[in-house]
Amino acid sequence: MEEVLDLLGDRLRQGLKINIELKNSIIPYHEMEEKIVELLHKTGFQNNIVYSSFYAKSLERLKSLDSVSHSSSGEILARKIGGSQAVKVADHMAIDLASHYKDDLASKLEQIKSAIEASRCIAFRYYYEKGEADKLIEPCLIVFKWSDWYVFGFCRQRQDFRLYKLRRLWNLEVVEETFSPREIPEEKKRFGSHMTDDYMVAAIYDSSLKYRLVEEYGPDCITTREDGSLYAEWGFTTREQAVEWFLRFGREVKVLEPPEMVERMKAELEAALNLYQT
Prior knowledge:
- The chain is of the alpha+beta class.
- Helix content is 36%, strand content 31%.
- It has a five-stranded antiparallel β-sheet with strand order 8-7-6-5-9, covered by helices on one side. The chain has a four-stranded antiparallel β-sheet with strand order 11-12-10-13. Strands 1-2 form a two-stranded parallel ribbon.
- α2 links the parallel β1 and β2 (49-52).
- α8 (239-247) packs across α9.
């Protein structure tokens, strides 16, 4: 950390803001927060820093250190994780984490944080592609990934670590049953690393969708054809994910290959048409 501050020293003195993500966990790095804050005050760069973390204990430690910090780091983080409207984190930057169900989200986050801190299990009803099921897990972390909130924990039924999306999780309660924190295998900490985008699909899109394609994959992912339409080829985790992606564009996209994906799209569209013919 000292090397980074030395390297960026001139830019920081000119007003540069940087983010420090505190990657602490239930297996803690002793006094990580205290040492970082102490170093920043020693160098005089405490007002150039925006902290981030998804571990409740880091939040508590930062809030306890606010009395010696002008940046109110704990308050920023508390509001961020709590689902507030807009959080100003720098002179020219604001983060808005509001959602259509922000009140329910804030309640879930608070329940999960309290369960993690008390080492108590949580129970909930979970809705997913294969159906729905009651779950009992040992919560470890709150995770913000893929533009959504998740709880990561050890599933008692599956006897393995799992990631659960909060929007699919209902009837949440913190139960009396307690647990001893487990060591999380390194491969499990790489959330989503088991997912690969190797199901390749080629398609032609209407030019009106260019902003959507750029938003998802960047401007270099598309080729403009002579007639103005857009050609793109990229990978999906599964064929079902690909089907869901293409159906949202209706008649403004045509899948070219692979052949089984073309046939699947035809079947899905015919089934949709039949809904309106009966």
